[in-house]
Amino acid sequence: MTSEHLDPDLSGTRTPGRRPEANEDRDNSLSSTLIRGLEILGCFKVDEGPLTNAEIAARLGINKATVSRLCKTLISMRYLRRDPNGGFRLAPGLLALSYPILSSMKWRQQAIGLMRDYADFAKGNASLAVFNGPHTVYIQTAGDISNFPHTPEVGMTMPVPGTATGRSLLSMLSEEELAEKYIEIEQAYPGALERYADRIARGMESCKKNGFCTAYGEWRPNIYAISAPLGRSADGLCVTLSCGIPAYRARKEEIEEDLGPRLASVAQNLRLFNIFGTE
User: Fold this and answer.
1) What is the pLDDT of residues 99-142, one digit of tens each?
2) Per-residue pLDDT tens for 221-269?
3) 118: Cβ contacts below 8 Å, ≥ 6 apart
4) CA distances from 183 to 20, 69, 134, 190 (A)
5) For the chain, what is the mean pLDDT?
6) CA-closest candidate to residue 209, choices 264, 165, 155, 246
7) Which domains does the chain have, with CATH numbers?
8) β-pair partners for 125
9) pLDDT tens digits, residue range 48-94?
10) 216 forms bridges with which residues in the sheet?
11) Residue 2 has pLDDT above 50, yes or no
12) Do residues 17 and 2 lie in contact, with contact meaning Cβ atoms separated by under 8 Å?
């Protein structure tokens, strides 16, 4: 459930599963017990096995007795389960929590046909993504994932500053919204905004001028990414349309001159279809 990223500038800057404000400046009006329980759920990483009581305690910096009590509660709620070989795993009950969110995004299904067509043409994987704090999160995917270094799937997150998807989403924000988002990013990844300032600025400008932006091997060295702002849903979510392509399948020139403009056209067609029902 943690953000998956390989860029060293965006890794290791925060404890997995913990919000930065969960340490020193936590609001005293918040429930620390609830926060700790949710932090446990956030400990689990992609392609990682079960976690023991001691491993969770070490990651979160809390005692094992507290972890044991919270895990027992989460098991009773069907959000955690015991692994037959020991330790804990996330349980399918968590998927049920996402159903009301995904079912309210019926416009995702209207986009899937064009997404699949584009992904097939580009020999990559197309996705819809929205903000999740300082990260982006996939809400729909389509396309070929053979030979991908990871499995694009609904719920996968990426850091905003180091990705084309993040910069595309940033390009849709007002000045006030952008300032608030930058605060979130800086809290999660101190110094990242300064390191990525030029690339963020170029990406946002390209989205506004050309309808898309690119990132070559930034998030993952063997993935070329394109992202096109799609618009805002009726309930206020900024949505972007992205495509990841294994680097060996496309040249940068092809992306800039053909695949990028094509993705921008797909986004424009979806807006003309009024998929968000806002017109």
Assistant:
1) 999 999 999 999 999 999 999 999 999 999 999 999 999 999 99
2) 899 999 999 999 999 999 999 999 999 989 999 999 999 999 999 999 9
3) 126, 243, 262, 263, 266
4) 12, 34, 9, 10
5) 90
6) 264
7) 8-97 (1.10.10.10), 104-272 (3.30.450.40)
8) 143, 244
9) 899 999 999 999 999 999 999 999 999 999 999 999 999 999 999 99
10) 224
11) no
12) yes
CA distance 43 to 59: 7
- Quick one: which of 149, 159, 132, 179 has its CA closest to 47? 149
146: helix, strand or coil: coil
Give the predicted TM-score (pTM) of the model.
Answer: 0.87
Phi, psi of 61 (to 5 degrees): 70, 35
Q: Distance between CA atoms of 93 and 79, rounded to whole angstroms?
A: 5
Supply the pLDDT for residue 20: 46
161: phi then psi, degrees, rounded to nearest 5: -70, -30
Kindly list the distances between the CA atom of residue 41 and the CA atoms of 35, 59, 75, 81, 91, in Å, as whole numbers in the listed order: 10, 12, 11, 11, 10
